[in-house]
Specification:
heterotetramer, A: alpha/beta, Rossmann fold, 6-stranded parallel sheet, two-stranded antiparallel sheet, C: alpha/beta, 5-stranded mixed sheet, 4-stranded mixed sheet, 12 helices, about 35% helix, globular, binds thiamine diphosphate, binds magnesium ion
Chain lengths: ~400, ~400, ~325, ~325
Amino acid sequence: MSATNPTQETKSTNAGSAAEPKSNGGTAVQPTQRGALPGVIHEPIRVIRDDGSLDPAWDPKLSDAQMVALYEQMVRTRIIDERLVTLQRQGRIGFHIGSLGEEATILGSAAACRPQDWIWPCYREFGALLMRGMPLQAYVDNMFGNANDPVKGRQMPDHYSGKPYKFGSVSSPIGTQITQAVGFGWAAKMRKDDLVTLVYFGEGATSSNEFHNGANFAGVFKTPTVFLCRNNGWAISVPAHKQSGSQTFADKAVAYGIHGVRCDGNDLLAVYAATRQAVERAARGEGATLVESLTYRLSGHSTSDDPKAYRKDTEVDAWKSKDPNVRFRAFLDKRGLYDDKRQTTLEEQTAAELADCVKAAEAAPLPSLESMFDDVYAELPWHLREQRAELLAGPRAKGHGH
Amino acid sequence: MSATNPTQETKSTNAGSAAEPKSNGGTAVQPTQRGALPGVIHEPIRVIRDDGSLDPAWDPKLSDAQMVALYEQMVRTRIIDERLVTLQRQGRIGFHIGSLGEEATILGSAAACRPQDWIWPCYREFGALLMRGMPLQAYVDNMFGNANDPVKGRQMPDHYSGKPYKFGSVSSPIGTQITQAVGFGWAAKMRKDDLVTLVYFGEGATSSNEFHNGANFAGVFKTPTVFLCRNNGWAISVPAHKQSGSQTFADKAVAYGIHGVRCDGNDLLAVYAATRQAVERAARGEGATLVESLTYRLSGHSTSDDPKAYRKDTEVDAWKSKDPNVRFRAFLDKRGLYDDKRQTTLEEQTAAELADCVKAAEAAPLPSLESMFDDVYAELPWHLREQRAELLAGPRAKGHGH
Amino acid sequence: MPQMNMVQAINDALRLEMKRDDRVVVLGEDVGKVGGVFRVTAGLYDEFGEDRVIDTPLSEGGIIGTAIGMALYGLLPIPEIQFGDFIFPAYDQIVSELAKFRYRSGGEYPSKLVIRTPVGGGIRGGHYHSQSPESQFIHVAGLKVVCPTNPYDAKGLLLASIRDPDPVLFFEPKRIYRAAKGEVPEGDYTVPLSKAAVVRPGKHLTVVTWGAMLYEALDAANQAAQKGIEAEVIDLRTLWPLDIDTIVESVKKTGRVVVVHEAPKTCGLGSEVVALINEKCFLHLEAPPARVCGFDTPFPYTLEMEYLPLAHRILPQLVTTAQF
Amino acid sequence: MPQMNMVQAINDALRLEMKRDDRVVVLGEDVGKVGGVFRVTAGLYDEFGEDRVIDTPLSEGGIIGTAIGMALYGLLPIPEIQFGDFIFPAYDQIVSELAKFRYRSGGEYPSKLVIRTPVGGGIRGGHYHSQSPESQFIHVAGLKVVCPTNPYDAKGLLLASIRDPDPVLFFEPKRIYRAAKGEVPEGDYTVPLSKAAVVRPGKHLTVVTWGAMLYEALDAANQAAQKGIEAEVIDLRTLWPLDIDTIVESVKKTGRVVVVHEAPKTCGLGSEVVALINEKCFLHLEAPPARVCGFDTPFPYTLEMEYLPLAHRILPQLVTTAQF
Ligand SMILES: Cc1ncc(C[n+]2csc(CCOP(=O)(O)OP(=O)(O)O)c2C)c(N)n1
Ligand SMILES: Cc1ncc(C[n+]2csc(CCOP(=O)(O)OP(=O)(O)O)c2C)c(N)n1
Ligand SMILES: [Mg+2]
Ligand SMILES: [Mg+2]
């Protein structure tokens, strides 16, 4: 298994140092010992072998075209990501939170959903949103918070909403989307609609109230939910092994009577296979699965964060050598499915497309002053009508051209 | 195992009907299948065998005197409980929430604590509080909310506070005490004090935010905490099997990397043994344990509840036949340690003592008007001084003799 | 017209709407088989089945969080929180999510549900079965808050709340659940949101109140009338957005106002009512707007009748304000 | 005396008190090694070790719940909530438990801690990194709320908050974390709680404000002065229990008052200030007390400078109120 995770590495060390429990007649083993859990696949699924062959047990049997298309999504996501960081550094956008290093986890899982399935995002999943069909321009408008931004410039960059693409709404408070996604899928189940909900969150979010609530309701009501835990090693500066005493995050499935599975989150096909199995199981009415995708956040937490303050370059470098995009490209190369020329074309096209979008976004007007008061309620109550009138009649803030 | 639990009975039925998961190469077994979990003792510990002998693997080796004393606490708790229900029916107290049928769980676990250990209550543990030394009069004063009530008549009956007895403060919101107890024990650990915290809650409370938070912090920081889950089958009208999809409540330990253990909650010595092991483990610095004590709430949820609306007499009768007090009395009888005469004397004494306390409590004055404003802050700020003056100068509410 | 109490009227509204609109689902702790600890959902489980009347695990965050998800899918959930005091584990889902969903998604995701919960004191419930948390929600943009005082309004306001496009917190004053009785039409009708009721006309001063305290205010007003003081008593019914016109019209007439509410005085809705009156009709004021409220302490058990702003505490303020 | 910004001053106070009182522990998300996302706890981890400066799992309920337990044991925890907007998962522990602990236990269990959290807008944080939730806590009896506006006060108020026997919410206006600079004494001193500061004397009207808006109010007051309007600007410093005497004294002098705060207007602390002024000095009022506040919408991203009650919005109200 090449895709070991910093959490797990630390844990094995812990396990060695833990004292023996008093064993007077009970059948317990150490909580820190590795053991098979009911419903949990412990050994991370990996599909692409070093020699380029696929583990037949888990091979999702994608066509060459599908694999190439997915690879191109990964590359495209990466390029947009890097370019947005640059724009932030230039002061042209205020913030970006990206998915560098987590492309396989995000795109592999999103691709494993069926068209009718809904995706409930955390905040690193713009790649999935674009793959689902949101025009790049709309996403870039969101990054600029201009008048064309689908959320009308009301939220920070990367807090998009994608209902037309069967894609939820990003909010900052950690974990809240988990319970909502469970309710969403539960409603579909009540309506007997064939629909699964995939919800994303980081391993840090497993500590939130709402992970507990969402997973517990999912277990009791057997909702068609796939909990996609991106274990990227860090919650800002807190390492995964300080987030929970459990051996793995997938283990937490046991507490709720749902299925758990771990996969190599930097192996696109492994993520696809693990998620696909979970989607199919949910669609068959067999309930929810907690997928722990073992990956790594290669960038800072966001553009506001400097990861050098809390983690070693050696750790980052080790993970860079497992770069999911590089790994998948190598796999495609072995099969003769891709080449540098195609990649260069894709990169250039994406960069050009993005540059156009940025240009348009920068040229677009700011949201109107009036728009600040819309959508608080379906209709403006008297107090908001008054406040709107006050704002419109009053002087403008500096730098606002309205 | 005689102490099966309604939850588990229902679950085995569920397990049968669950569909097979797709098993393409993974090592997973069904979440509904029973399997050994790391750190969890699944098969409920039982100590007292039907023939009156003790399982040597778990025998806590209490002296005869200790066992008799504990039995007498159980009987005393039962009598007080029943009498308080009567007082409520007579309209002399407003409310009571009791422990009928859960005496072994509560007294066995509390007795397993060392004198320096702290108990953090849910709301059914007045028996433990009295055993810890609170005078019966103080408890009865709390039931009446009079001027002598240790909490000054500010909270509902059975919302006591027992700091002098190393006993926490009852509040209604479910689960909040769990996280607090973890923090309390954690602080003791920081101070290197040899002290364990035992915290009580019902199986319903495992669904609360705070169970998740408390257990998670306990796992990460290896706090000296014993989580005592009274699985009494019901959370008001919601049966235990609808509370969570997990096979057992002890299983939830896995999600936090703490130990889990189940015990026959109607076997006083089993509860004692399971708790004692957990206390000793915590004291040795080996972290927390989740004890699931399988018992049954023989009464309504509280005096406000009529359980006939949601559960069958047959279920209640089945559990009546496992009455923990009757079982322990039978065990003592087999050993010739107790007899009807002693029991009658104890019952009469307790009833008489209680009657005196009730008399005194009814004769005691109500809390003073002024007392309403004390303890909101350490000192009265201006606004409370004003409000107090307003109340004292104004007319009285009907029926208030101040 | 049948006589009903508040519990029956709310139950009737729920049943009616569940029949009419199959998107409506009820969920919460003990709402199913047993029909809620106050029996407000009694009979619904038998009539509509466990898919539409759902007993949940003990988690308010789970109840509201999943209800939001259901609403996003297109259902119309009516979660019950067993006591208003237990709404706080769900506070994050309500204030960070429910209240902001339509706004933050640029209008893509209206998240419509009605949260029902019993509030208020007077039933010997102590700290945790007595509170009136309205202002903690009114401060948060995006929520509507309703609080009926009689069975007719309870049914009509609940039906209006369910059909309103915005999330509504429906606070039921538990002290008058059974005590407030009256005729309630069979079948469908609504009482519009954001319209107050002038329950007692008067010319000397205005009393603004809601919930169980309405009856105390009326009692005090009747006693004041014996002293020649005629108080106009306004039942807000919808606490937010409140009916500013009715308040202002009355205060312009009387020039004097007393706000009465159970919740602690400080930063309660009463302070907002006073501040609005200052903004809207300051020059009409002939006496300082006053508040008679719960004291700024946790809700006490034994002394609850001294804590609550009952008639005996309201009356002196009516006299003081009228004679100012 | 060294020059410091707010971040440094708060850091200094924490360090000083951690040295002085070994009961003090700091805990929260990212407060350890990295010193907090705003670097307020920078260096403390290295100096005091991981037992006293604790990186926690991502759970505000867990942070506050365990901190309450530590406090009950006798420690003096100073939890940090990473942004004030993320305090709501801990709302139940704060309002149901922390606020009521001393009271409900008959005085047995004072539960003393200081919750630090950055609040307010102006850093392009949108909905969830900008809110000012003070009134949602002030309404709840048993809590104290503090909000400093400059480094000197920040250090002195934090030390006073730590030594005060009651639970304190210490709200740090993040917009001025680094912008507000000034001389800060080395070593120990306190700024007393519940004492406001008259930051700018004036005779024509009173401005009551706090947090980052103080600077906007001063800006507006200086502009008004050019029109001959002298505003007295009061920085509340402690939001609750507030310094009623200083407010009343000023309003008695000026007869006019404008309250300025970032939080949404409705049921904000501004409404309480207005209501109190009505109760305390109604007859001195020569103009309707006014409020300039955040609008009653979620906190917007792009339009935040239009949303906030900045000087350009305050000034017209000063003129209107002064000329009323
Ligand atoms: C309730 C809440 N608390 C704190 C934060 C601040 N915060 C934002 S992201 C983050 C870490 C999340 O870590 P993880 O869940 O592992 O996701 P990742 O960023 O690694 O994808 C924190 C603490 C927040 N947004 N919400
Ligand atoms: C946060 C919260 N929600 C709801 C309630 C109402 N309530 C009181 S006890 C109870 C059931 C508790 O069940 P369990 O945890 O199993 O404990 P038991 O009563 O069986 O001992 C409920 C729902 C509450 N007190 N607090
Ligand atoms: Mg992470
Ligand atoms: Mg129970």
